[in-house]
Fold:
Amino acid sequence: MSNYFINAKVKKSRINKEIYGHFSEHLGRCIYEGIYVGENSEIPNVNGMRTDVVEALKEIRVPVLRWPGGCFADEYHWKDGIGPKESRKKMINTHWGGVIEDNSFGTHEYMELCRQLGCETYVNGNLGSGTVQEMSEWVEYMTFSGLSPMTEQRKANGHEEPWKLNFFGVGNENWGCGGNMTPEFYGNEYRRYQTYVRQYNLPEGEEKCFDNKNMVRRIACGPNTGDTEWTEGVLKTLFRHCEESLHGNAEGLSLHYYTVPGVWSHKGSATEFDTKEYYRTLCKAHYMEELIRMHSAIMDHYDPQKKLGLVVDEWGTWYDVEPGTNPGFLYQQNTMRDALVAGLTLNIFNKHTDRVKMANIAQMVNVLQSVLLTEGPRMVKTPTWHVFNLYKTHQEADLLDSYLETECIGEEDEYQIPNLTESASIGQDGKIHITMTNLSPDKSYPVNVVLTGCKPEKVNACILTEAMGAYNTFDEPENVKTCAFDGVEITEEGLKFDIPSCSVLLIEVA
Ligand code: AHR
Structure:
């Protein structure tokens, strides 16, 4: 029996809705086909955006969407993607499959997509191969309302009012595809570029920090996985001679981490795996916790007041592509194993919301750990979509103090994982939401919840559970889906239940 203690009286930090964010890149069939089919498509669409996809994304309350890359961002020249579509420049997408990018999806289309989704905007600028002027003018084009050449151009292209730009990334993976820079070099480049990312709408005297919603929050390129040398080098450079700002003139620092079960040359199949590989995958996903602690410790040194958010703007599983598909398109299936990766990772993010302010799963449709897959006019919700649907109740709720007794499980000494993971939050309406994953592929566990500061009157629960390799296909889209769970009992102390093997459980306590 695992005892699980929740103290409803101890509210920790607010769980930013942005932790449930997404990422969409001009890569494979993410933007084109997956999201944008054009106004003349036979696939039902509104202003070119697939209706089925937009509806499914609205259901999980996508809070923020990062675009246009990824590695693509540091090769993207935004002016190629505005104006009449027929005269937009065509280019080769050298990073991703060498296909022709016709730029028919650009700034206006991205803003329209975010409008339809009702989500915040996160545009990633080009520091690697773009100029300071180009970056500065993009921000002006998107956000300035006064008289200026960029404003005039935006108006001529059909958009009178500026858009709300919530976040702006100053380069992507500049330690790699974004220019192969050293941390100090990037840090200095960041300082120069961000100077011209103007805040046109920030009231005088307001503090700059991640939580200030009036500003364009600038995200500096952070480390890859466990590269603490990058974190240290960039922060040292950002904070040097920076007395006027307590947060190094950035509101966020990114972290990229992908869960790869094997090695880069043989990552492993998305659907064909044994229990050893299953445990290995979950163990590697669980490494996120250590990464957050590691990089947060360095951030705490420079920014003890936590004004700078850790932004995990690329995370998720990365397998070998589906057989027969373009290797540059990164198209992969999504099983119950992915659902558990999502469930355990989101629980980790929830527990670190004092520092983790945003996260963006890679990527939204048809690429890596997608929530949706499409094939022509058909669309399927993946097991990962169902996890985002269960966890949406945590958005903007307060994290509660909780502790769960766990045991280690696994088949190899170096790939041991906790059997269960959890997080609990309380919403503005006083309802408590608990999300728990059982990572064992074949064992259920009894859980005894000791709830302090709240007497449960009513309980609702919903579960996603299937065999570890189960997945949805276009012909069988409901192999994996959530259903009501009636196994939760109210007790004197709180609750008790048996959590089924290989499952993600949501409990609502009123
Ligand atoms: O998400 C795919 C790629 O992974 C992104 O373009 C890049 O930033 C990362 O290496």
User: Anything to note?
Assistant: The chain has a mean pLDDT of 97. Residues 25, 69-71, 172-173, 314, 362-363, 368 surround alpha-L-arabinofuranose (CB under 6 Å).
